[in-house]
Write a structure and sequence with these properties.
The protein is an all-alpha fold. The chain has one domain. The chain is 70% helix and 0% strand. The longest helix is centred in the last third of the chain and has 53 residues. The N and C termini lie far apart (74 Å). 21% of the residues are buried.
Length: 220
């Protein structure tokens, strides 16, 4: 049975290198796109519950305990709530976070050409999901609220919770890219050391060559 699929299976089996590069590009796209959106008010508003409830981030907000009264839906414009978000430093924090995400995206993408920059980007991309996944513990809005239906709370993820859970895949993908970058750096080091060891020998040969030529001339 396998004989009929040997060719496609062989191609797939040898596509891991392409897969790593595609994963690198995919991670970069996610960080670059989402990072750019952090400069837009609706995206900054949407992360308010995560930041306000996080023990690692809530101090960036001026009034994290008051966020529930000022939430808006995507596409909805309420000038009073927008003003509160501005005073809460929602947009200032979001822009800072967006800048970091853009940097991670660029560094990860540069890994196609630079092993060192790629390793830094992949490492940051690997660490980021740990913070994001912590929102499942700290953010009540990550779970379906008890509004009358029997299915609420754990394990019933809300739309926000389902979005956060997808970072598990980002975590795994970034680990593969980080490992590939580390492997490339390790392969680069022995090559550089070998090159340095061979340089003195070449230099010594170059210095002795004129003398050898002179002796051959005299013998002739």
């Amino acid at each position: 049975m396998i004989g009929y699929f040997r060719l496609p299976l062989t191609l797939i089996a040898h596509s891991d290198r392409v897969g790593i590069h595609l994963m690198r590009v995919a991670i970069a796209i996610v960080f670059l796109w989402i990072g750019a959106l952090k400069f837009v008010p609706y995206e900054a508003d949407s992360i308010t519950p995560f930041v306000a409830n996080s023990p690692f981030m809530s101090f960036f907000y001026e009034h994290p305990d008051e966020y529930k009264a000022h939430l808006t839906h995507e596409g909805e414009l309420k000038p009073a709530e927008r003003a509160w978000q501005a005073a809460n430093n929602t947009y200032g924090f979001s822009k800072g976070l967006g800048t970091l995400e853009l940097m991670i995206g660029v560094l990860t993408l540069l890994g196609l050409a630079s092993r060192r920059l790629g390793f830094v980007g992949a490492t940051l991309a690997f660490l980021t999901p740990f913070v994001t996944l912590s929102f499942l513990i700290t953010t009540p809005e990550a779970w379906v609220a008890a509004l009358g239906d029997a299915q609420h709370g754990f394990p019933y993820l809300s739309g926000a919770g389902r979005l956060v859970l997808k970072d598990v895949m980002l975590l795994a993908g970034a680990l593969l890219v980080m490992a590939d970058s580390a492997r490339a750096l390790l392969e680069e080091r022995p090559s550089a050391e070998s090159s340095r060891r061979s340089s003195p020998a070449i230099l010594s040969l170059g210095r002795s060559a004129p003398g050898a030529v002179l002796r051959l001339t005299e013998q002739g």
